[in-house]
Amino acid sequence: xxxxxxxxxxxxxxxxxxxxxxxxxxxxxxxxxxxxxxxxxxxxxxxxxxxxxxxxxxxxxxxxxxxxxxxxxxxxxxxxxxxxxxxxxxxxxxxxxxxxxxxxxxxxxxxxxxxxxxxxxxxxxxxxxxxxxxxxxxxxxxxxxxxxxxxxxxxxxxxxxxxxxxxxxxxxxxxxxxxxxxxxxxxxxxxxxxxxxxxxxxxxxxxxxxxxxxxxxxxxxxxxxxxxxxxxxxxxxxxxxxxxxxxxxxxxxxxxxxxxxxxxxxxxxxxxxxxxxxxxxxxxxxxxxxxxxxxxxxxxxxxxxxxxxxxxxxxxxxxxxxxxxxxxxxxxxxxxxxxxxxxxxxxxxxxxxxxxxxxxxxxxxxxxxxxxxxxxxxxxxxxxxxxxxxxxxxxxxxxxxx
Length: 402
Prior knowledge:
8-stranded mixed sheet, 14 strands
């Protein structure tokens, strides 16, 4: 499907945005493809039972077909299907990483793309919600890319560090940038084998963009393109969240109690709601999206039987973000040697204009370095209505990946 058709269809859906019908997916055995050793971790086939999590209608028929989601085309003419398949790969002796693959039923000759979530929900809740016209992963697959989303350890369906079974403040915040980069390395190695050695385009959202940049700075040979959305960089500049993350008794130090946290359904929308400058949030965001985002995020939480239900979120990304906001660099933009696109929504509460300015100045070795500010774009702009930033974001990304 062409970029024009994707964007046209999404704008046409802006008023109603129908929800794709939900079904209860059967539990099926997940098949495993080519596996390898990478990033210091053995990647091997693991027996697993996993409910296919994308609640779109499924084809009837064989057991293999039960893994295939029936994609509904966003235009009135084409009938392209998007196949979804879920995997677990090993990341050490007792750790598994979750990966979802999306491929169009048409020939996929585009660059393989890996979507990297930020420090909130996992990959499915971020990039593959069950609301028609709002799955970024599906949009990219329809444009001809083999698309993958992953869960970094501690998020979504990937293995949780042992510390996340303890009380919130009993151990240091979980899942550092270095650990996230290890997970990305393992997944990229696996994806390259699955895609005949092709380099992979990374699209990272918020902390996911920081992790993607950090990974790319040491692994340019693995990456074709880098896209960072609403991400912090190591710039000492004002940051609205700094005070809430700082130890009140030790100015200039991160508050360890601001690390791992529990987020209820209402908490998951709080910063998003504050960024939308209208009382009626439905003018900016389809209500079905808010419901799907909350529902999908909480469904990935193995201990969400708490009352009220809540999602436990690893907190080391907050500590790293606090340090980035004070100018600590975890990686150097001058070490990036691949085409790079940096996008920021002007209503984003996480990144700052200074991050774009610094990246533009320091991406001196990237063959292409483009920064884009999207007017009125929120932190969640690719989940907002098309005219509120989603269409512009998708247009910029698809044009960049050509």
